[in-house]
Amino acid sequence: TQIGIRKENMLLDKAQAIMNEGNQLLQDGDAAGAIKKYEESMKLVAPERQSPLWRQMGRAYAKLNQEEAAVAAFKKAMELAPADKMEEYRNSLAQFYLDVKKYDQALDVLANPDTAGAQSPEQVLLSLAATAKNRQPALAEAALERVLKINPNNADVYFELGQMYYADGKEKDSRSKELLTKYLEIGKDPDKIENAKNMLIMINRRSK
Fold first, then answer.
1. pLDDT tens-digit series, residues 120-159
2. 184 burial class (0-12, 13-18, 19+ CB within 10 angstroms)?
3. Which of 27, 86, 124, 152 is the most exposed place for a label (fewest CB within 10 A)?
4. How far apart are CA 100 and CA 76, in angstroms?
């Protein structure tokens, strides 16, 4: 009925206003106060509309360094998210793990085919590696290692990862050697083949 719809819209507006108050508190550094507002707002909306609130709860718990509660809230947001928004909510959980330097957990989330969205997990991980390469090389390396587990025939990743480990220095030489040797077996790019050969020569020299 019209009255029912109007009533629902009023509740939604009220819930949104309370959520906005929570967001302001979170911005001002009062994460505990924000959580109270999100909980209050949640009582006014149906579960299928609660994803944004759960995500904000996750962010608030993260500010309070309550890791388990944050993860649970981000996961709840994903669970309730509509299919077309799943990727967005998945990225929020992954970002939380990245912020607390838990790279493996972040990669687990991103490589999960059930939540990969329009892109394949391999594409998601390759994009992450490309953006992280200069600022967070350890994350980029972990992402590329994960790509090789998903697709052991991705020749370019053997080269890319071998080159990154080579640049990291002597302590990564054995893995670098393995990867570059594999690239020589399956790679096709003449320039990369030449580079891989040169790096392998240098690795052998510096290991003596």
1. 889 989 999 999 999 889 999 999 999 999 999 999 999 9
2. middle
3. 27
4. 19
CATH of the domain at 75: 1.25.40.10
| The model's pTM | 0.78
Average per-residue pLDDT for the chain: 93
Please tell me the total count of domains within the chain.
1
Neighbouring residues of 68: CB distance < 8 A, sequence distance ≥ 6: none
Residue with token string 């906005």: 20
Q: Which long-range contacts (CB under 8 A, 24 or more apart) does 21-30 make?
A: 22/56, 22/60, 23/56, 26/56, 26/59, 26/60, 26/63, 29/63
Q: Is residue 128 part of a domain?
A: no
Range of the domain at 22: 1-80
Burial grade of 196 (CB within 10 A; 0-12, 13-18, 19 or more): buried
| Amino acid identity, position 81 | A
Find the mean pLDDT for residues 81-100: 91
Q: Is residue 38 part of a domain?
A: yes
- The SS3 assignment for 46 reads coil
CB 180 within 8 A of CB 199: yes
Is 106 inside a domain boundary? no
pLDDT bin (cut points 50, 70, 90) of residue 4 is confident
